[in-house]
Write a structure and sequence with these properties.
Blueprint lengths: L2 E9 L3 E8 L4 E8 L6 H18 L4 E9 L3 E2 L4 E3 L9 E3 H8 L4 E4 L1 H12 L8 E6 L3 E7 L2 E2 L31 H4 L1 H14 L16 H9 L3 H25 L3 E5 L6 H15 L9 E4 L7 H13 L1
Parallel strand pairs: 1-4, 4-8, 9-12, 12-13
Antiparallel strand pairs: 1-2, 2-3, 5-6, 6-7, 9-10, 10-11
Helix pairs in contact: 1-2, 3-9, 5-7, 6-7, 7-8
The structure holds zinc ion (ZN).
The site of zinc ion has 6 residues, from loops.
Length: 318
């Protein structure tokens, strides 16, 4: 009996991770290569597919590869192209799907990493059986994937669901996208650090966070201080939760989700993030949605989510 599997690939700014994944979400092989230092995107894909082919061969006796799912920043599902990704070395528009198919002649699909995560949550995580939910990653940036009526929403041009780049604060912080006040600049891991630096600057209270050089402060340090009851750290979390809860209250109005899944280090801070985000969302939400939308932690494993998501994504396509 041949076991069927797909390959999930997660292209990050520094590393590209891959996993061989069964239909039930079991990763039976994983690995990674560096994303940086190639002549061009063609060269990167050649090295990546050679690595994959060596491993495909090892399992070829009793395993059958069905396709490859790729999650990448600014990955466009419709065109198969990565378009002007800010964290990658490739310039302009790169047709990753065509490049990959030159080496491995099987179905290949591309989407952005948060969309892949949403499909992973639906097939293998906490969103099993749900038709309407929103998946949010709170990492270096804020990504999101929206599932509506059982389908991932791509929109007219393939870039639907950038909740991280909706306005959270009028004329707020500068965002990498060129606008001001995007949600990402407040509720990502880097956003909460920006909040910490602002709060430490404007009030002069004693805080554990003052023991550190401002450049050393991380979301983890803020979390550790909050656990010890540090007032400034607690206020930093409360402010972050308020901003996120308020934006989610708005997001609910578009697709009326059953649940919103939060993924990433910050989402694990249940007492400081998940619970207050829910409270703030309920405070700001339209009456007809009150007490109907769950805020849940993602059930995907931190290190595997993007790869499993990309693999799930191809299962969803073929
Ligand atoms: Zn932005």
């Amino acid at each position: 009996m041949m076991k069927e599997y797909t390959i999930g690939i997660d292209i990050g700014g520094t590393n590209t991770a891959f996993g061989f994944v069964t239909k039930t979400g079991e990763v039976f092989l994983d690995g990674s290569i560096t994303t940086r230092g190639y002549k061009n995107a063609e060269h990167f894909v050649e090295i990546l597919s050679n690595t994959l082919k060596e491993n495909i061969k090892i399992y070829s006796n009793d395993h059958k590869l069905k396709g490859i799912g790729i999650g990448a920043p600014n990955g466009n599902y419709y065109s198969g192209c990565v378009e002007f990704a800010p964290n990658l070395e490739w310039e302009g528009i790169v047709n990753l799907v065509d490049l990959m198919k030159k080496h491995i002649d099987l179905p290949v699909f591309l989407t952005n990493d948060a969309n892949a995560g949403a499909i992973g949550e639906m097939l293998f995580g906490g969103a099993k059986g749900m038709n309407d939910f929103i998946y949010i990653t709170l990492g270096t940036g804020v990504g999101s994937g929206i599932v509506s009526n059982g389908k991932l929403v791509y929109g007219h041009d393939g870039f639907a669901g950038e909740i991280g780049h909706t306005f959270a604060v009028t004329d707020g912080r500068d965002c990498g996208c060129g606008r001001k006040g995007c949600l990402e600049t407040y509720t990502s891991a880097t956003g909460i650090v920006r909040t910490a630096l602002e709060f430490l600057e404007k009030d002069k209270r004693q805080s554990e966070l003052r023991m550190y050089d401002p450049a050393e402060i991380t979301s983890k340090l803020i979390y550790d201080a909050a656990v010890k009851g540090d007032k400034t750290a607690l206020e930093i979390f409360d402010y972050t939760a308020m901003i996120l809860g308020r934006s989610l209250a708005d997001a609910v109005a578009y697709t009326s989700p059953e649940a919103i899944f939060l993924f990433g280090g910050l989402a694990k801070a249940k007492e400081f993030m998940l619970h207050p985000v829910k409270q703030y969302m309920e405070k700001y939400i339209l009456n007809i949605y009150k007490n109907k939308v769950k805020i849940l932690p993602s059930e995907l494993k931190e290190g595997q989510a993007a790869v499993i998501g990309a693999a799930a994504f191809i299962w969803n396509e073929i």
